[in-house]
Design a protein that fits this description.
With about 120 residues, the chain is α+β, with helices and mostly antiparallel strands. The protein has one domain: Alpha-Beta Plaits, CATH 3.30.70. The chain has four helices and four strands; from the N terminus they run βαβααβαβ. The chain has a four-stranded antiparallel sheet with strand order 2-3-1-4, covered by helices on one side. Helix 1 runs antiparallel to helix 4 and helix 2 packs across helix 3. The longest helix has 12 residues. The termini are close together.
Protein backbone atom coordinates (compact mmCIF):
# COMPACT_ATOMS: atom_id res chain seq x y z
CA UNK A 1 0.00 0.00 0.00
CA UNK A 2 1.05 3.58 -0.61
CA UNK A 3 -0.04 6.95 0.69
CA UNK A 4 -0.35 9.55 -2.04
CA UNK A 5 -0.28 13.15 -0.82
CA UNK A 6 -1.05 15.90 -3.31
CA UNK A 7 -0.85 19.63 -2.68
CA UNK A 8 -2.92 21.49 -5.28
CA UNK A 9 -4.44 24.87 -5.98
CA UNK A 10 -7.63 25.66 -4.04
CA UNK A 11 -9.58 26.37 -7.23
CA UNK A 12 -8.74 22.90 -8.62
CA UNK A 13 -10.33 20.96 -5.77
CA UNK A 14 -13.73 20.27 -7.34
CA UNK A 15 -12.13 19.04 -10.56
CA UNK A 16 -9.69 16.91 -8.55
CA UNK A 17 -12.46 15.31 -6.46
CA UNK A 18 -14.40 14.46 -9.61
CA UNK A 19 -11.34 13.08 -11.39
CA UNK A 20 -10.44 10.85 -8.44
CA UNK A 21 -14.01 9.57 -8.22
CA UNK A 22 -14.03 8.89 -11.98
CA UNK A 23 -10.77 6.95 -11.51
CA UNK A 24 -12.43 4.74 -8.88
CA UNK A 25 -10.94 6.48 -5.83
CA UNK A 26 -13.88 7.40 -3.62
CA UNK A 27 -12.20 7.67 -0.22
CA UNK A 28 -9.67 10.38 0.54
CA UNK A 29 -8.94 13.24 2.91
CA UNK A 30 -8.71 16.92 1.99
CA UNK A 31 -7.34 19.68 4.21
CA UNK A 32 -6.86 23.40 3.76
CA UNK A 33 -3.16 24.17 4.11
CA UNK A 34 -0.75 27.08 3.61
CA UNK A 35 2.54 26.75 1.80
CA UNK A 36 4.93 27.92 -0.85
CA UNK A 37 7.29 26.42 -3.37
CA UNK A 38 11.00 26.93 -3.76
CA UNK A 39 10.93 28.77 -7.09
CA UNK A 40 9.32 32.01 -6.00
CA UNK A 41 12.05 34.43 -7.05
CA UNK A 42 11.68 35.69 -10.59
CA UNK A 43 15.12 36.52 -12.08
CA UNK A 44 13.67 39.62 -13.78
CA UNK A 45 12.43 40.91 -10.43
CA UNK A 46 15.88 40.34 -8.91
CA UNK A 47 17.47 42.20 -11.81
CA UNK A 48 15.03 45.09 -11.37
CA UNK A 49 15.69 45.25 -7.64
CA UNK A 50 19.45 45.31 -8.27
CA UNK A 51 18.88 48.21 -10.67
CA UNK A 52 16.99 50.13 -7.98
CA UNK A 53 13.40 49.80 -9.21
CA UNK A 54 11.14 50.25 -6.17
CA UNK A 55 8.39 48.06 -7.66
CA UNK A 56 10.79 45.15 -7.93
CA UNK A 57 12.02 45.65 -4.37
CA UNK A 58 8.39 45.62 -3.16
CA UNK A 59 7.75 42.36 -5.01
CA UNK A 60 10.70 40.72 -3.27
CA UNK A 61 8.95 41.41 0.01
CA UNK A 62 6.27 38.87 -1.06
CA UNK A 63 8.79 36.03 -0.92
CA UNK A 64 7.89 34.93 2.59
CA UNK A 65 4.17 34.83 1.86
CA UNK A 66 2.32 31.53 2.33
CA UNK A 67 -0.40 30.69 -0.18
CA UNK A 68 -3.64 28.78 0.48
CA UNK A 69 -3.60 25.28 -0.98
CA UNK A 70 -5.50 22.02 -0.61
CA UNK A 71 -3.76 18.85 0.57
CA UNK A 72 -5.34 15.59 -0.55
CA UNK A 73 -4.34 12.31 1.07
CA UNK A 74 -5.32 8.90 -0.26
CA UNK A 75 -4.09 5.40 0.61
CA UNK A 76 -4.23 2.96 -2.30
CA UNK A 77 -2.96 -0.50 -3.24
CA UNK A 78 0.46 -0.45 -4.93
CA UNK A 79 -1.09 -1.27 -8.31
CA UNK A 80 -3.24 1.90 -8.20
CA UNK A 81 -0.45 4.40 -7.50
CA UNK A 82 0.47 5.17 -11.13
CA UNK A 83 -3.16 5.73 -12.05
CA UNK A 84 -3.78 8.05 -9.10
CA UNK A 85 -0.62 10.08 -9.76
CA UNK A 86 -1.45 10.32 -13.48
CA UNK A 87 -4.99 11.48 -12.67
CA UNK A 88 -3.73 14.13 -10.23
CA UNK A 89 -1.24 15.46 -12.76
CA UNK A 90 -3.73 15.54 -15.64
CA UNK A 91 -6.34 17.49 -13.70
CA UNK A 92 -3.99 19.95 -11.94
CA UNK A 93 -1.26 20.67 -14.49
CA UNK A 94 -1.45 24.19 -15.92
CA UNK A 95 2.24 24.55 -16.73
CA UNK A 96 2.59 27.51 -14.36
CA UNK A 97 4.38 27.73 -11.00
CA UNK A 98 2.10 26.72 -8.15
CA UNK A 99 0.54 23.66 -9.80
CA UNK A 100 1.47 21.65 -6.72
CA UNK A 101 3.41 18.59 -5.63
CA UNK A 102 2.70 14.89 -5.24
CA UNK A 103 4.41 12.69 -2.67
CA UNK A 104 4.20 8.88 -2.54
CA UNK A 105 5.01 7.16 0.76
CA UNK A 106 4.96 3.52 1.84
CA UNK A 107 2.21 2.39 4.23
CA UNK A 108 3.01 -0.67 6.32
CA UNK A 109 -0.56 -1.34 7.46
CA UNK A 110 -4.07 0.06 7.71
CA UNK A 111 -6.92 -1.05 9.96
CA UNK A 112 -10.64 -0.41 9.51
CA UNK A 113 -11.90 0.44 12.99
CA UNK A 114 -15.47 -0.80 12.45
CA UNK A 115 -14.48 -4.37 11.44
CA UNK A 116 -10.82 -4.59 12.54
CA UNK A 117 -9.90 -5.67 8.99
CA UNK A 118 -6.29 -4.89 8.19
CA UNK A 119 -4.12 -4.55 5.11
CA UNK A 120 -5.51 -3.79 1.66
CA UNK A 121 -8.96 -5.14 2.66
CA UNK A 122 -9.32 -2.15 4.97
CA UNK A 123 -8.85 0.46 2.24
CA UNK A 124 -10.91 -1.06 -0.57
Amino acid sequence: MKEVIAVVRMNMMNRTKQALTDAGIDGFFANEVLGRGVGLTNPHVLQGAASGYEEAVALLGERGKLYPKRMITVVVPDKAVKSVVKTLIEVNQTGKPGDGKIFVLPVTDAVRVRTAESGEKSII
